[in-house]
Design goal:
about 120 residues, Arc Repressor Mutant, subunit A, binds flavin-adenine dinucleotide
Length: about 120
């Protein structure tokens, strides 16, 4: 799609959701992000095939050489923003535990209501 077609399509979709007010209030200013044109975008999310979770996840969950692996791909439910957030909680908890901050790790799990899956 050309830039103009892309913007027109997005406006059409927003208008479908919110009505004519969209056209009334649209100033003509926009910022366009097209992933297909971004040379730095190589993939969108992890999509492990059969056996790859079993293969990779144990090493993601290890604290090794001062490194903790975080990111959407390291979560059992990979692909989502929530996977990235869950992995961040898990990674920070791992760092805290590794350095002896057990009660802080527990507090983190409680604060983010993660005690059902983040066992500390
Ligand atoms: C087009 C598209 C649509 C999506 N739609 C949805 C959706 O509707 N809902 C949803 O939940 N998820 C969606 N996702 C997936 C979601 O965006 C990702 O799962 C999530 O952003 C992953 O978060 P992350 O923190 O693991 O990785 P990222 O968001 O990729 O963050 C990694 C960061 O590391 C930086 N980085 C990379 N290399 C280096 C380096 N060497 N040094 C320093 N920094 C570096 C990158 O610049 C980036 O900022 C979508 C993804 C795409 C691409």
């Amino acid at each position: 799609m050309s830039k103009q077609e892309h913007v027109a399509r997005v406006l059409e979709y927003i208008q479908e959701l919110h009505g004519f007010i969209v056209l009334e209030q649209y100033t003509g200013n926009y910022a366009r992000k097209c992933w297909n044109l971004d040379p730095a975008a190589g993939a969108a999310w992890a999509d492990p095939s059969a056996g790859q979770r079993t293969l990779f996840i144990p090493s993601y969950l290890k604290y090794a050489q001062g490194l903790v692996h975080m990111g959407e791909h390291t979560d059992i439910k990979q692909s989502w923003i929530s996977s990235a957030l869950h992995s961040a909680l898990r990674g920070v908890a791992m760092l805290l535990v590794e350095h002896g901050y057990i009660s802080e790790a527990r507090q983190l799990a409680r604060h983010w209501n993660a005690t059902s899956w983040l066992w500390i």
